[in-house]
Amino acid sequence: MPRPIVLTISPEALTHNLDVVRQRLQHSADALGRAAPKVWAVIKANAYGHGIQTAVPAFFAADGLAMLDFEEALLCRQLGWQKPLLLLEGFFNYDDLSLVAAHDLSLVLHQPEQLEMLSRFASRKPLKAYLKINTGMNRLGFTAATLPQAWAQLQTLINERQLDFLGAMTHFSWADESAEATRAQIETFLALNPAPQAAFSVCNSAATLHTQWQALLPATEQWVRPGICLYGASPFVAESAAQLDLQPAQTLSAEIISIQELDAGQVIGYGHTFTARGPMRIGVVACGYADGYPRHAPSGTPAVVAGQRTELVGRISMDMLTIDVTHIPAAGVGSQVHLWGAGGPSVDEVAQHAGTIGYELVTAVTPRVPRQIIQS
After folding, report:
1. What is the DSSP secondary structure assignment for residue 196, as one 8-state letter?
2. Structural domain span for residue 19
3. Taking the CB of residue 125, how many other CB atoms lie within 10 A of it?
4. How far apart are CA 149 and CA 84, in angstroms?
5. How many structural domains does the chain have?
6. Mean pLDDT across 230-246
7. Which residue(s) pair with 66 in the sheet?
8. Structure confidence at residue 1 (pLDDT)
9. 231: Cβ–Cβ under 8 A, 6 or more apart, which residues?
10. In terms of C-beta density within 10 A (0-12 exposed, 13-18 middle, 19 or more buried), how is residue 266 classed?
11. Are residues 132 and 259 in the same domain?
12. SS3 at position 42
């Protein structure tokens, strides 16, 4: 018998969330009297844990897909995706360039070493690339000091027909909370961008959903890069996925495999971190940190069983966690427990209790948890 735990994926929710993004962008564009931005649907990290094979058809309406790994890009091509594919970290060594050319992949160029390798590579047709500008994130990208030389090298590659320049891009570091920081990054990008008439890509999930930034951006061709919102989680602390009309695309659920009856003063789990305040019924659930549930989730983290909310009590074990079912007489061995997603708390709510973000949880579910794709 398989262990009673499952990760359920909804392609319909993925498609719905992409539609929400596109509708918001179109509404903003109509108000500004310009064309709506195009959409790179970000599917890195195995589509944020939802599976490339599931995400590619679900995101059919996207204008392109963006990822990190060559393997994911090649799988997209094998699945029949013919529209653009963008490698968000570009390439890592010279031998990668033959794969880029063979599969018509677009690159992000962010360091001088990439430009040097490109100058030595001969391709039958120009490779497509974005120039990444560091506007304050301070991870990848050319700075005000290094950009002039990079741009001169790019111009040479363009003139020699080795490169087809797609445009410039940057990455916002605080668009989920700080309007001031985001405005400053936009101003820096506009000041540094050496090709203001070319296409550009700057907006992540937060900046894409809060469309007020569109008024500060030029009316030239724009590509946004939504990620976590496509999977039904919110990039904002103060605005839930439900408030944004996003649907959870991933649901983690498991069954109760044991019921324990406790008296006041008895403890639960490793480290005796929870003591029963009175008589309690405890449900032992077939899910633990080896399944990807965060070990640091404290007592009080929400779950839903038999349609009623409850909470975790005690420390998360490798293969089990425990919930309070004292107030839920219908709960028993075999009862399904929704740990996050449809029918349960949102993944963002669980993440907030655990002191992390929903991104970590949806990408951390381990391979030993069976996947079930909802067929519409």
Report:
1. T
2. 11-231
3. 10
4. 28
5. 2
6. 96
7. 42, 86
8. 67
9. 14, 17, 47, 48, 50, 249, 250, 362
10. middle
11. no
12. strand
The answer to whether 104 touches 81, Cβ cutoff 8 Å, is no
Q: Are residues 349 and 226 in the same domain?
A: no
In terms of domains, do 179 and 271 share one? no
Residues 98 and 192 in one domain: yes
Chain CA centroid to CA 35, Å: 26
Domain annotation covers residue 4: no
338 and 197 both lie in a single domain: no
Decide if 35 is inside a domain. Answer: yes
DSSP-assigned beta bridge partners for residue 37: none
Query: Is residue 102 within a helix (H) or strand (E), and if so which, with residue range?
Result: helix 96-102
The rounded mean pLDDT for the chain is: 96
Where a domain ends, among 231, 264, 296? 231
Report if residue 238 sits inside a domain. Answer: no
Q: Could you tell me if residue 202 is inside a domain?
A: yes
Q: What is the CATH number of the domain that holds 302?
A: 2.40.37.10
Beta-sheet pairing, 371-373 with 336-340:
unpaired
- Would you tell me how many other CB atoms lie within 10 Å of the CB of residue 249? 31
- Calpha distance 322→256 (Å, rounded): 9
Closest to 345 (Cα-Cα) out of 304, 291, 288 = 304
Confidence of residue 96 (pLDDT cuts 50, 70, 90): very high
At residue 146, the pLDDT reads 97
Taking the C-alpha atoms of residue 371 and residue 5, their distance in angstroms, rounded to an integer, is 9
pLDDT digits (tens, 9 = 90+) for 139-197: 999 999 999 999 999 999 999 999 999 899 999 999 998 899 999 999 999 999 999 99
- Residues 36 and 179 grouped into a single domain: yes
The set of catalytic residues is 44, 270
85-87 and 106-109: which strand pairing? Answer: parallel
In this predicted model, what pLDDT tens digit does every residue of 274-285 receive, in sequence order?
A: 999 999 999 999
Q: Please give the backbone phi and psi of residue 32, each rounded to the nearest 5 degrees, phi first.
A: -90, -5
pTM of the model: 0.96
In CATH, what number is assigned to the domain containing residue 122? Answer: 3.20.20.10
What span, in angstroms and rounded, lies between the C-alpha atoms of 220 and 202?
Answer: 13
For residue 234, CA distances in Å to 127, 229, 247, 309 come to: 35, 6, 10, 21
Tokens 């009623």 correspond to 308
Residues 201 and 257 in one domain: no
In sequence order, which residues have a C-beta less than 8 Å from that of residue 367 and are 6 or more positions away? none
